[in-house]
Amino acid sequence: MSVFNIKNWEYWSSSMFYIPLLPYAFYLAIKARSFGFFSAVNPGIEGSGNGLESKFKTIELLPDYCKPATVYVAKNEKIATVINNISNAKINFPLIIKPDIGFRGLLVKKIGSIEDLSSYLNKYNSINLIIQEYIEFENECGIFYHRLPSEKSGTITSLTLKKYLTVYGNGKSTLLELIHQDKRAQNYLASILEINQPKLTTIYKKGEKIILNVIGNHSKGTQFINGNHLINNDLVNFLNSLNTQIDGWFYGRIDVKYHSFDELLKGENFKILEINGIISEPTHIYDATTGSYFKALKSIKKHWKLIYTIGTTNNKLGIAKYTNLKDFISTYFKYKRYLKEIAKLNAIQ
Q1: Is 51 left (phi over 0), alpha (psi -120 to 50) or beta?
Q2: What domains can you pick out in the chain, each with its CATH number?
Q3: Fewer beta carbons below 10 Å: N end or C end of the chain?
Q4: Backbone angles phi, psi at 338, to 5 degrees
């Protein structure tokens, strides 16, 4: 690990953010008298959004006006069928393809042609996938929202602005040289070079902006910027309105692409790329310029308490029930098996 990474916890292993809090998680489970108390948080999402839910089914919960055109691709589905389905859905190239069950940007890719799509499908046809239209809006953010079942209005606890990995031309250096000169790009070199292979020898004019990856995930180089200062009543009202249109969603993060923040506050010119449940994070904590590692742990602890409060309330009100121990153990081993399968596919990437 470089000195840069040691000082910047956004590059640390995720275990560094969760292992220290495991005693607190056990305390909450004992207090709830169930190790599956979190399963009652979002009854509208499979597993309350534990990471094994279908992204396609979850996207389908959204109102039509704010979700991207999306096609489900079953494993081993014929390429001709896939092409026909995306045509019927009016999805054009470029498009986005990713696993139906996935996390942290794994295997998410922007595809520019039928040839590239066929190549991707041939590599990863052993798992279910989804294809989405590519949203052209320039900006992206993650909004973390929760609402207590007994209340009509919710709360936004995190707003993360996303800055795609970008370099700027100087009229002299090739793109390859610009990438090697960029401190942040060094952490994602292999994937960045692969994505930008056709342009590496290009010399861009001074000040010209070159976005190296348009996938808004930290694992793809995107920088997470704390935008909590932008949270206001208009944004809360926007999320409250959206929440009333999503059955059984009380807690989690939506990832949004939008044209301008002012338009987003008005509910205009935006699309929701994903809706996440209990496994989602308040990603503003990865902005090392506005906080500390211990503040990050405190924020995660706060959100785990919200999971406890919402889950136990839903259980008491009969809105949702806890999963039993057998199902809890089964889910754990299913998660481990899927991680192994994904790890094999990731080695192909």
Answers
A1: left
A2: 3-68+136-162+223-348 (no CATH), 69-134 (3.30.1490.20), 166-213 (no CATH)
A3: N
A4: -70, -40
Prediction pTM value = 0.92
Cβ neighbours of 103 (radius 10 Å): 16
The answer to whether 47 and 55 are in contact (CB under 8 A) is no
- Residue 258 amino acid letter: Y
Q: Which residue has the tokens 């596919």?
A: 345
Q: What is the pLDDT of residues 99-108, one digit of tens each?
A: 999 877 788 9
Closest CA to 265 of 256, 276, 274: 256
Mean pLDDT throughout 159-171? 96
Task: Say what percent of the chain tops pLDDT 90.
Answer: 75
- Terminal-to-terminal C-alpha distance of the chain: 23
Q: Is residue 53 helix, strand or coil? A: coil
Q: Using the structure block, give the residue that is written with the tokens 């040839």.
A: 115
278-337 pLDDT, tens digit per residue, is: 999 999 999 988 888 999 999 999 999 999 999 999 999 999 999 877 777 787 788 788
Q: What is the pLDDT of residues 207-244, one digit of tens each?
A: 999 999 998 887 788 999 999 999 999 999 999 999 99
Tokens of 12: 């640390």
Pairing status of strand 109-111 against strand 95-99: antiparallel
Q: What are phi and psi of 156, to 5 degrees?
A: -100, 120
Q: Which among 136, 158, 286 is positioned nearest to 214, based on CA atoms?
A: 136
Sign of CA dihedral 48, 245, 103, 87: positive
Closest CA to 108 of 200, 13, 215, 227: 215
The pair of three-digit structure tokens given for residue 156, joined into one six-digit string: 């936004």
